[in-house]
Amino acid sequence: MHSAARTYSPEMQHLKTTRTLILNSGEPEAKRDEIRRYFHATWDLDERLFDTLADDAVFTMRADPLRHPLIFYYGHTAAFYINKLVLAGIITERINPRFESMFAVGVDEMSWDDLNEAHYDWPSVAEAQDFRARVRHVVDAVITALPLAMPITWSSPAWAILMGIEHARIHLETSSVLIRQLPLDRLQPHPLWEICRDRGEAPVNELRPVPGGPLRLGKERNHPLYGWDNEFGLFEEEVAGFKTSRYLVSNGEYLAFVDDHGYQERRWWTEEGWNWRQYRQAEHPIFWSREDGRWHLRTMVEKIEMPWNWPAEVNYLEAKAFCNWLSDKMGKKLRLPTEAEYYRLHQLAGLPDQPYWDKAPGNINLEWWASSCPVDRFESAGFGDVIGNVWQWSEMPISGFPGFEVHPYYDDFSTPTFDGRHNLIKGGSWISTGNLATRDSRYAFRRHFFQHAGFRYVESAAAVVIPSIAYETDDQVSQYCEFHYGDENFGVPQFSKAAVDQVMAMYGDRPRRRALDLGCATGRATFELARHFDQVTGLDFSARFIRIGTRLKEEGFVQYTRLEEGEIVSYHEKHLDQFGLEATRGKVEFFQADACNLLARYTGYDLVLAANLIDRLYDPAKFLREIPARINPGGLLVLLSPYTWLPEFTDRERWIGGFRRDGEPFFTIDGLKEQLAPQFTLVAAPCDIPFVLRETRRKFQHSFAEMTIWERNRA
Questions:
Q1: Are 485 and 580 in contact (CB under 8 A)?
Q2: Residue 625: pLDDT above 90?
Q3: pLDDT digits (tens, 9 = 90+) for 109-141
Q4: Are 143 and 223 members of one domain?
Q5: Is residue 278 situated within a structural domain?
Q6: What are the C-alpha distances in Å from 391 to residues 110, 386, 442, 592?
Q7: Does 298 fall in a domain?
Q8: Cα angle at 513 between 494 and 643, to 5 degrees?
Q9: What confidence score (pLDDT) does residue 113 get?
């Protein structure tokens, strides 16, 4: 007999039953009220999650050495609202620039995520709470005042608010996983997070057929629900029929793999998987433990006797090893499903989408429990847990659908994961809410990540085709790869090298310890500076660019496509040693950062280079006011720019030149002198550095960047 879902107070019940918003129906003011309620419910859920920490000291504990402490995530969801509202031009004043920089980046174990605790002076919990309260007030005010027209689409100003809300709901899930990894004695129960109490022996699993057929995925821009950039576009495939397991693999089914020494047998594991297993010295799933000969399972805030009929929660590498082992035992070729196969199963089940159901047809959206439940509790069309309970690992690395475009408010939500190392997870978990619980959601994690994730297996004669992603195909990023590492055109020297060479020709005997390349894009100037300095840091606002510099640092080469004509591209591979830069790899580092709101640690530089940056900042005057503190007395600030002022990057009233003042032309060089004069001296006459940006084999942009070199005054 199954227990009923727990009854909560009206306030808590409301938090447990929120639905993502329908954006193409309703009157504007009624929708504004819906957005406000959705925002408040999301915020309150976030607060209640952190109520499970026993005391303030737990906030600064590292649950995982590859993650920040929880104080970061507590501040991150709030800072995200401010950073995106500033970027969207909806607000102009920050609340706490230090916090909005400190809490901005570092959530996905990317090479540019700075996890060095020595670089962070975390605030007290009280300070973080005060910051969050102030952010809540600001967002409330924005929701009240923001012009609102229906329907709401990704070009609407309100999209920035929805982005903040849905981003916070993602972190409900990721933070709950980190809490689950903390010592139990540092946590406390909370009535909102009551687990399922149904447990028993595992049901016998079996393969059942799923018919093939056509599949069409991808949202159009007028879709009624919020979506992240990777959900838009169009993907079509004729899916071959296949068989898949009736249930998610249960703890009981997985135990046979553990008991058969599956974690000790190299042959079941991929090379990546075995390396991970050796590193972790894993003997069983991370949330399992064995005490006095009995198995137990760690849930979020308690340890229980092993529920053998709950889904096994593992990473992709463990799931893949199990499939290889079971293939051998059954004499069948078993694997994880593709994304397309998952959606054929979803079609067969005929489940309504969140927010259109009356009651969740699976253990999802927090509508049942704050844990997994038996794998045979929710069945649809003869299959258990088509949605909910735990996420389901797939065979597919994530990539964009044809027609993929990044959203201008969040250009690095998806693209850093298009690296072949992040596999799609489908179906949602018990804590998946908002966009996470919708049919079209597309989330991916590194294959060794722990999430509330399990798997089902597939038998199919169809080969799995993994799209090649070795070559960078993002149009803008590829263009900059060519700009930085491609051929010279029309006899114009490579821009970054020419600029650095010219600066160093007049650098003299100044110290050559540390340099900063601001707006480094794909990193050529960072490497060029490293010929002359002991250490060089490259910073860029976009992880789309940072990942190229990081790849060059780590691997010494980059591969990218170059547009030739129409749909025709050519493929290119460039190595640092082609440019005499191989020896610089150990002297550079790359991080994501906002040039207008830098972390305090970015200081003490002998040279700061900002190439083609000043006219792309949302607040160039603020940048110029703050950059002196980053440069040592006697150090140099080098600015290069074609001064292409555009309102889509910089609000007209924030331009520092390119307009008439008192009827007379006021050029950017005039504005630079005005802004920098108190603390800098112009040490050389401005000069032009030409550059050519290739678009296609027959279209090029020939431009000139004016270079000005400023010495910070010594007194």
A1: no
A2: yes
A3: 665 566 667 677 899 999 999 999 999 999 999
A4: no
A5: no
A6: 22, 10, 11, 29
A7: no
A8: 40
A9: 61
Residues 6+ apart with CB under 8 A from 62: 68, 69, 117
Report residue 426 as tokens: 């489908």
Is the domain of 413 the same as that of 440? Answer: yes
Give the whole-number percent of the chain exceeding pLDDT 90: 85
Helix ranges, 433-494 (H): 475-485
CATH code for position 689? 3.40.50.150
CA 388 to chain centre: 22
Rounded distance, CA 90 to CA 69, Å?
Answer: 30
Neighbouring residues of 51: CB distance < 8 A, sequence distance ≥ 6? 188, 190, 192
Domain count, the chain: 3
pTM > 0.90: no
Gap between the Cα atoms of 289 and 497, Å rounded: 56
CB atoms within 10 A of CB 648: 8
Tokens 């419910």, located at residue: 41
Residue corresponding to tokens 């605030």: 123
pLDDT band at 4 (very low <50, low <70, confident <90, very high): very low
Burial of 235 (0-12, 13-18, 19+ CB in 10 A): middle
Domain range holding 65? 10-193
Distances (CA, A) of 335 to 50, 142, 235, 616, 695: 37, 48, 22, 47, 42
- Burial of 539-557, coded b for 16+ CB within 10 Å and e otherwise, reads bbbbbbbbbbbbbbbeeee
Closest-CA residue to 520 (of 437, 604, 616): 616
pLDDT tens digits along 86-96 = 999 999 999 99
Number of other residues whose CB lies within 10 A of the CB of residue 247: 24
Q: Are 83 and 98 in contact (CB under 8 A)?
A: no
Same domain, residue pair 393 and 437: yes
Residue 708 phi/psi, 5-degree rounding, is -125, 140
Query: Please, which residues have CB within 8 angstroms of residue 478's CB and are 6 or more apart in sequence?
Result: 472, 560, 561, 562, 563
